[in-house]
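Priority: medium. Attachment 1 of 2:
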C-alpha cells in the first residue's frame, strides 16, 4: 500500500491547484490511498488566520473531498481529514465538526503554542522553555485520542539553534509518548525538500536516528501544497522509506480512522 495522508488545498491560502488535480497526481504517482488534511478552520472570534480555511468554507471542503472520494473510488481510496493544532479551548468545537461532517481522521500539526493569535510559531522557537511548551502540547494531543498521527514532530528544529540536550530531551519525550500511545510520527517530505533547498532544520537526522533506536512507528507525509508535490517527491519517498527502515523505524501500512456509527 502506497499511502499519504498529508494533502492541502487552496483554501488554506498558501497551496496551489484544484482539489481534483491532487487526486490525479496521486494516481499518476501510484498511490493506493490518500487523505486530504488541509489546515483546519478554527472558530476564532476576533482574529482572522492567514494560513487556514474559514469556518464558512468547511462545507465546501467536505463536499469536494466526498465528491472526489466517490468519483475515483475504483481507482484510489480517498479520506477526509484535517491538520489541526492542539488548541484546548476549541477541542469541543472540533469534536462536534468531526461528528457532523464525518471526518475520517485528524492529524496533529502543532504549529503554535499555546494558541495561534499571540502565541509562538513552533518553527521559530529558540529557548528550552518554548520547547517545553511545544512538547506539552504534542504529548497532550497524543493522549487525547483525537489524532491519527503527529505531523512533523521535529518542527521545533526548524528554528531551534542546535540539537542540544534540551532538543534531545524533547525528542525523547515525544517519541516515547508516541510509542506508549500508539500514535505514529510523520517524516515530513515538504520539510525534507526545503532542508535540501533552503537548509531548514527538519526532518532532523538526530531526531530520526533516535526514533529508530527507540523503535517508533512512523508514516511518510508529503505535506503536498501543490499537486506536483506528489510527483516531485517520488524518488524522495522511496529513499525515505529505505532510510527509515535502516534506522529501525516501523512504517505503518495505514492509520486509524474515526468510526461514525451510522
Ligand atoms: Zn501548510
Ligand atoms: Zn501540512
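Attachment 2 of 2:
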Amino acid at each position: 500500500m502506497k499511502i499519504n495522508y498529508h494533502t492541502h488545498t487552496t483554501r488554506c491560502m498558501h497551496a496551489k491547484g484544484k482539489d481534483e488535480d491532487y487526486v490525479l497526481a496521486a494516481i499518476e504517482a501510484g498511490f493506493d490511498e490518500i487523505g486530504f488534511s488541509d489546515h483546519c478552520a478554527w472558530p476564532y472570534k476576533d482574529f482572522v488566520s492567514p494560513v487556514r480555511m474559514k469556518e464558512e468554507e468547511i462545507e465546501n471542503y467536505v463536499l469536494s473531498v466526498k465528491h472526489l472520494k466517490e468519483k475515483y473510488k475504483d481507482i484510489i481510496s480517498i479520506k477526509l481529514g484535517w491538520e489541526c493544532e492542539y488548541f484546548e479551548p476549541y477541542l469541543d468545537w472540533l469534536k462536534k465538526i468531526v461528528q457532523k461532517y464525518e471526518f475520517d481522521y485528524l492529524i496533529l500539526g502543532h504549529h503554535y503554542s499555546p494558541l495561534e493569535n499571540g502565541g509562538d510559531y513552533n518553527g521559530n522557537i529558540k529557548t528550552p522553555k518554548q520547547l517545553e511548551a511545544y512538547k506539552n502540547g504534542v504529548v497532550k494531543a497524543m493522549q487525547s485520542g483525537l489524532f491519527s498521527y503527529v505531523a512533523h514532530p521535529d518542527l521545533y528544529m526548524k528554528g531551534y539553534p542546535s540539537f542540544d540536550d534540551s532538543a534531545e530531551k524533547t525528542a525523547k519525550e515525544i517519541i516515547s509518548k508516541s510509542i506508549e500511545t500508539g500514535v505514529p510520527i510523520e517524516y515530513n517530505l515538504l520539510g525534507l525538500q526545503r532542508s535540501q533547498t533552503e537548509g531548514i532544520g527538519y526532518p532532523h537526522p538526530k531526531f530520526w536516528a533516535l526514533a529508530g533506536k527507540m523503535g517508533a512507528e512512523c508514516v511518510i507525509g508529503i505535506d503536498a501544497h501543490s499537486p506536483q508535490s506528489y510527483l516531485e517527491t517520488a524518488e524522495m519517498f522511496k529513499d525515505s522509506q529505505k532510510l527509515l527502515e535502516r534506522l529501525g523505524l516501523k512504517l505503518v501500512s495505514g492509520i486509524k480512522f474515526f468510526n461514525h456509527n451510522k
